[in-house]
């Protein structure tokens, strides 16, 4: 089913320069979640020019384009559009200098620090190639540009706005993400791939007093410190060594001066797990630990534990992942790999879940091959290679762009190639 890939990808040479310009433009003009109006218009205008039937404004800024090309399966390919409140430090000539108003009303620097601009460009390129080579495939190709992945609410926003009634039901949903691996690298993984993520805000209460009179106080700063230390034992002492999980405290806020014991302290933390049982166990342990420390410290009021964001785990369906992995192995050869578990998180899986469709999600490398090889040689990958969300993270345009266009095209043709004229039995695609 992948023998048509070279025919479709033959058009890449003719559009490469245009795609590189699109990528630089998107990188220079990032937009925060649910503010991606410019990005969505760029995607919509491109799809209309390619002959797609376009529906824009789904969930605010989401876009779908549908290209029907005879009888056959329906494949949906998804890219996320939003950027991050990060001040860019890449030094690139097309670096962002954009600022925007954040949800809290403050002006924030904005940067494509996670590679979503690359995802959008790759899907535009794939959409154009598929439109140019309709003689090489049959079926329906749906491209979807999703808002607000970083906030974990973009997929739900599109679903709540009627996505499933405004798009053909896909037989499979495809998605990819650029990661801090060597550019040209392609990695698939059946089963668990990305972690679930839960962010919590915990408020613990004390009794305020003068800093010189601690006997009159219940010190919430000390209480918060004890909680932070105790939380680190959940993964190390309550989970098996073979069970991956992460508990990270990212923020503690308390007090206004050095000689005032405050009334309360606020702890913000993030939890990463890969299955529902571990997720439940860790979250329950956090609640138990916080309540016990508050009781031990004579806190006058019960703690408040609020879940502020929640991402589902990304668990790839086995059958479509095997099909895509086989297609990648045939096309990319030694550059196709099985990728490790990733502790990043996504809301993409909510889209196939809403349609009742299987999905597969893979990673591509985005780091300059020479730079990556040097860091690997020196054993300094963790120190020298910027990761997603870093102010210095920006994919090397090539070969990342060619790879991302190719992966999405090869994966789509694993269903839409001429050898796949008949719609497959959904039961063969996983569940």
What would you say this structure looks like, in words?
A hairpin with a 5-residue loop joins strand 4 (99-101) and strand 5 (107-109). The longest helix is centred in the middle third of the chain and has 21 residues, at 276-296. The protein has an 8-stranded mixed beta sheet, sandwiched between helices. Helix 9 packs across helix 13. By secondary structure, the chain is an alpha+beta fold. The protein has 13 helices and 18 strands.
Give the fraction of residues assigned to helices.
Answer: 25-40%
- Computed over alpha carbons, the radius of gyration is 24 Å
Query: Main sheet, how many strands, which sense, barrel?
Result: 8 strands, mixed
Number of helices: 13
Uncertain runs are 420-431
Beta-strand residue percentage: 25-35%
Strand order of the largest sheet: 1-2-6-3-7-18-8-17
Shape: elongated
Structural class: alpha+beta
- Kindly report the average pLDDT value: 95
Distance between the termini: 21 Å
- Quaternary structure state of the chains depicted: single chain
The tally of strands reads: 18
């Amino acid at each position: 089913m992948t023998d048509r890939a070279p025919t479709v990808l033959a058009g890449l040479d003719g559009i490469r320069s245009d795609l590189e310009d699109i990528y630089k433009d998107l990188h220079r003009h990032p937009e925060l979640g649910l503010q991606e109006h410019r990005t969505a218009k760029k995607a919509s205008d491109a799809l209309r020019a390619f002959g797609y039937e376009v529906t824009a404004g789904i969930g605010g800024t989401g876009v779908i384009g549908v290209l029907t090309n005879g009888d056959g399966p329906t494949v949906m390919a998804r890219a996320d559009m939003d950027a991050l409140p990060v001040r860019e430090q890449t030094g690139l000539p097309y670096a962002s200098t954009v600022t925007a108003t954040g949800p809290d009303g403050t002006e924030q620097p904005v940067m494509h620090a996670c590679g979503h601009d690359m995802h959008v460009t790759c899907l535009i390129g794939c959409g154009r190639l598929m439109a140019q080579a309709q003689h090489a495939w049959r079926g329906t190709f749906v491209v979807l540009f999703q808002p607000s992945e970083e906030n974990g609410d973009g997929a739900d926003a599109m679903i709540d706005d009627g996505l499933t009634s405004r798009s053909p039901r896909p037989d499979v949903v495809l998605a990819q993400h650029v990661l801090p691996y060597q550019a040209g690298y392609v990695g698939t993984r059946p089963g668990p791939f990305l972690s679930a993520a839960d962010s919590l805000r915990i408020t613990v209460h004390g009794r305020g007093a003068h800093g010189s009179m601690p006997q009159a106080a219940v010190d919430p700063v000390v209480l918060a410190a004890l909680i932070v230390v105790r939380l680190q034992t959940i993964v190390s002492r309550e989970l098996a060594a073979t069970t991956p999980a992460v508990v990270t405290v990212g923020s503690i806020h308390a007090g206004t001066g050095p000689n005032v014991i405050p009334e309360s302290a606020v702890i913000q933390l993030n939890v990463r797990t890969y299955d529902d049982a571990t997720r439940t166990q860790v979250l329950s342990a956090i609640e138990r630990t916080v309540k016990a420390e508050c009781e031990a410290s004579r806190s006058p009021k019960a703690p408040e534990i609020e879940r502020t964001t929640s991402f589902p785990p990304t668990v790839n369906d086995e059958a479509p992942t095997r099909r895509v992995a086989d297609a990648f192995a045939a096309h990319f050869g030694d550059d196709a790999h099985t990728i490790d578990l990733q502790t990043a998180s996504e809301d993409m899986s909510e889209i196939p879940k809403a349609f009742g469709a299987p999905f597969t999600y893979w990673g591509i490398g985005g780091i300059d091959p020479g730079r990556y090889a040097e860091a690997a040689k020196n054993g300094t990958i963790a120190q020298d290679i910027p990761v997603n969300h870093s102010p210095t993270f920006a994919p090397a345009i090539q070969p990342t762009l060619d790879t991302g266009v190719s992966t999405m095209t090869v994966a789509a043709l694993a269903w839409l190639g001429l050898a796949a004229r008949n719609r497959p039995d959904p039961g063969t695609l996983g569940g």
